[in-house]
Amino acid sequence: MEVLISSRGHASPSRLERACALLRREAPLHWVERPDVRPFWAVTRYADIVSIETRSGQFAAGPRTYLASETSEAVLQRVTGKPQLVRSLTEMDPPDHAVYRAIIQGAFAPPALRELETWLARWAAEIIDRIAACSGPIDFAADVALPFTFRVIGRMLGTPEADDARLARLAQAFVGAEDPQRRLAESPGDTMRMAMLALRDYFEAVVADRLAYPRDDLTSLIARAEPHGAAMPHYELISYFILLVTAGHDTTALALGGGLEALLAAPDQFARLRAEPDLLDSAIEEMLRWTTPVRHFMRTALGDTEVAGQPIREGDALALFFHSANRDESVFESAGAFLIDRSPNPHIAFGRGPHVCMGLQLARMQMRAMFAELLRRTERIERAGRVRRVQSPFMSGVSRLPVRIAFRASFDAAAE
Ligand code: HEM
């Protein structure tokens, strides 16, 4: 059990998978009591997670939305005076959730995404140009996945590229506060507090600017929104930006890095993708299943109920482990194999139900743009050093992926 809720456990995929397989088999709803963590049910089977996610009248998303130690929770409550650190879409329930979600929905709808698609292809090409100019190995996670994905959300929010690295650092500290390379202070609670206050200060200034000088960006939309007919309360306003800078890049960056790592570990699959690039869309779905960057969200029972025959009491918290669901053998044949032509592939890397990821098509588009460019421009990609993984039970995956890339000579010539 420890492996599932500890930050280190999520940096050891095979140990983690063994633990999840055991739980799925022996104790799919497992009551966890550990020092410094409020008790909760660990839910590891696909069917049970989908059932809980879609019974939204029976399970609430807030206020306990993520696993955190009681020590961290206490630090954060001292800062906010609220039962949770932030209150964004992921923590909201009816009636607020739908009203707040509607504010930015248009930015993720097909017409807006179509407009973005052409720019995304150019942006992917520019990032690859930058690494093509480097001699020697590069770190795909830090040099490609991170700057590529952060600029997408930065562009949507209307923040300048010069701020990307700093904002990404704060966002990553906020969601990976246990990770020694991401933290800003010794304790996770202090790291989250520092990241949150810095993001608050940053977005307070951007919001003030957009209230005075509106632009065609998400920040102006959120700053001027009037959910329930009045300006958004400050806490919810800042929370909205914190959600977007975290959800908007780390997830997709981890899926890109982990996706490439999976291809490198399965050379037959990589060779097939090069030979049959039409398989790219299904390869991307498999990368999403395989990496499942968001490891869990929590729900709280609103009344006495049951899940798969297990009685659940009102007020019980349940942690839904998406990566375990995505390895569930009763849904995915050969679940432990990375197969780029897997079909069907009903993975739940984006969750399900009313909170299903808003950026799911945008994330897919980013992955398609980047991998299409890699396939087009490169002849060979090989590992050039040790992989590092994020140590966090909330968001995890590959944070360092050294690779050596051989670019196509014909493409270089054409580009000159
Ligand atoms: C591979 C990339 C991504 C993955 C794996 C991912 C995964 C998730 C998951 C699991 C949830 C919670 C779903 C649930 O509770 O059922 C979520 C929610 C959300 N995601 Fe993503 N996400 C990704 C990319 C993005 C991007 C690019 C954005 C763009 C800003 C985004 C914005 C959001 C938002 C706003 C929510 C909250 C939705 C709500 O609570 O109503 N995500 N995502």
TrEMBL record:
One matching Pfam family is p450
Q: Does the keyword Metal-binding apply?
A: yes
By its UniProt entry, which PROSITE patterns does this protein fall under? CYTOCHROME_P450 (PS00086)
Molecular functions per Gene Ontology: heme binding; iron ion binding; monooxygenase activity; oxidoreductase activity, acting on paired donors, with incorporation or reduction of molecular oxygen
Cofactor(s) this protein requires:
heme
Q: Which InterPro entries match?
A: Cyt_P450, Cyt_P450_B, Cyt_P450_CS, Cyt_P450_sf
Q: Which UniProt keywords apply?
A: Heme, Iron, Metal-binding, Monooxygenase, Oxidoreductase
Keyword Cell membrane (UniProt): no
Q: Which SUPFAM superfamilies match?
A: Cytochrome P450
Any idea what job this protein has?
Cytochromes P450 are a group of heme-thiolate monooxygenases. They oxidize a variety of structurally unrelated compounds, including steroids, fatty acids, and xenobiotics.
Family note: Belongs to the cytochrome P450 family.
Name under which the protein is recorded:
Putative cytochrome p450-like enzyme
